[in-house]
Amino acid sequence: MGNHYTIEITGNQLTYEQFQSVVYDYRKVQISESAYKKINESRKYVEKLVQEEKTVYGITTGFGKFSDIVIQSEQTAELQSNLIISHACGVGEPLAEETVRGMMLLRINALAKGYSGIKANTLNTLVTLLNHGVHPIIPAQGSLGASGDLAPLAHMCLPLLGLGEVFYQGMRQPTNQILKTLAIPTVTLDAKEGLALINGTQMMTSLGIQSVLSARNLLFTADILAAMTVEALEGIPKAYYSKLHQVRGQVGQITTAANMMNLLEGSALTTEQGEKRVQDAYSLRCVPQVHGASKDAYHYVSHILEREMNAATDNPLIFSEEDQVVSGGNFHGQPIALAVDFLSIAMAEMANISERRIERLVNPQLSGLPAFLTKRGGLHSGYMILQYTAASLVSENKTLAHPASVDSIPSSANQEDHVSMGSIGARKCLSIMGNVLHVLAIEYVCAAQALEFASKLPGKGAQVAYNLLREKLTPLESDREGYLDIEIAKQLIQSGELVNRVQSHTNIKL
């Protein structure tokens, strides 16, 4: 665990880089003084409403369909704790600890904005749990994505009350034992606090941000591996001529074409139009158009999630300076639901086109190379079955990429009659990222093996990528367990080592 500096939380300036450092590198966080000021002002306003016995949703009333039932002031604490306990009804496997850390960070950031009416002490306890690496057990299933991720966030908040279970130092343990060990006191929730904690989009947003971070790496990787395959198949780089792409004007396409030319620079393997063939197949020739469209989708989704990262998403929201409490629907996950569905489709396409390039590498009728990239075909199968695995993953992605956001089921006695299903879409999106990673790993293995049969040197990008893999994986001479080859390539991609190494030698961009 690294912790070189503490990240200050203001509610307004959280970045992808900070998210990554807190979630994956265990950086600690602290609330800024300016945020505390707003938090305290908002809290005082809530207490004033309770004293005046004003009828305000979620503060002096029940929730959802029970919003018409007025709660007496002496029952407000019980109301809030009951909310957490009753809503903690998720099912399924626990979310990964990274996802849970992301949820905690995002909820802390949203509450730090000062529109939620939470007590500073309650928020500080959530910060303490995050900083100590105490991660609530949160079942993955049970959210409709409006009124936000209610069930998952309720599970996230159980430890504040000393309830539920947590992961701590890699072990699943009862919350009360860990709080006692770490001398972390439980909290008593007062008016509005339970609602402030569980109304929001933090599960789907945490998953979505993880997918965006993964997609960034995979989009760079796809260009690098496409260039390797073009080299191995003696492709025609004229298709990446800059003017061809500029006259269409699509930004991602223009960027990808420039990347391909950079990666292929200095190649002795690529050919001219008509030298070996007049045109390449689409999976080579249309790399800028296909990869570029996915890059454009990535940038759109990245902006949506960056906004949501710093959003106030509970209900009602407190505007104390204007003497207003406004009940609305900022918890509705529709912006995230549509975005993650779009990213799912865009990234599934990266695996689709990669698998077609893999087929061209291993199929002798398409490549002119030894069948399945082995010199001893028949006795040896070479990389025949790697393409099967890629095809299986691509087919699975086609099912996973079906949009979750086109569905809606009414809840809370039809009071909440349109929901986003954003958490389902976000979970599927992250699964797709894992499948794309493995397909690209297979292309990496196959493209490097195909280059073993080349009589000339590839361009600088392919050469750097080839050299990196060969530091860990020898050329295929005899059949061996294919999963080991895939795992080595996967680690080089997933760690960012491939992209970093190639970027240090080329000028590729996203």
What distinguishing features does this structure have?
2 domains, Fumarase C, Chain B, domain 1, Fumarase C, Chain A, domain 2, 55% helix, two-stranded parallel sheet, mainly alpha, 510 residues, 20 helices
Radius of gyration: 26 Å
Mean pLDDT: 95
| Strand residue content | 5-15%
Number of domains: 2
Task: Write down the CATH class of the largest domain.
Answer: Mainly Alpha
Largest sheet data: 3 strands, antiparallel
Shape verdict: elongated
- Give the spatial strand order of the biggest sheet: 4-6-7
Give the helix level as a range of percent. Answer: 40-55%
Topology order in helix (H) and strand (E) letters = EHEHHEHHEEHEEHHHHHHHEEHHHHHHH
CATH topology grouping of the largest domain:
Fumarase C, Chain A, domain 2
Low-confidence segments, given as residue ranges, are: none
**CATH-level-4 superfamily name of the largest domain:** Fumarase/aspartase (Central domain)
CATH architecture annotation of the largest domain: Up-down Bundle
Number of helices: 20
Quickly give the structural class: mainly alpha
Compute the number of strand runs.
9
> Ends: how far apart?
30 Å
Catalytic activity: L-histidine = trans-urocanate + NH4(+)
InterPro entries: Aromatic_Lyase, Fumarase/histidase_N, HutH, L-Aspartase-like, Phe/His_NH3-lyase_AS
Protein name: Histidine ammonia-lyase
Family: Belongs to the PAL/histidase family.
Describe the SSE topology.
Layout: E1 7-9, H1 16-25, E2 29-31, H2 33-51, H3 76-87, E3 91-94, H4 97-111, H5 120-131, E4 134-136, E5 139-141, H6 150-157, E6 165-168, E7 171-174, H7 175-182, H8 193-198, H9 202-232, H10 242-246, H11 251-264, H12 282-285, H13 287-309, E8 317-319, E9 324-326, H14 334-362, H15 364-367, H16 384-400, H17 422-451, H18 460-470, H19 482-494, H20 497-503
Parallel strand pairs: 1-2
Antiparallel strand pairs: 3-5, 4-6, 6-7, 8-9
Helix pairs in contact: 1-4, 3-6, 4-5, 4-9, 9-11, 9-13, 9-14, 9-17, 9-18, 11-13, 13-14, 14-16, 14-17, 16-17, 17-18, 17-19
Cross-link (5-imidazolinone (Ala-Gly)): 146-148
EC number: 4.3.1.3
GO biological process, one term: L-histidine catabolic process
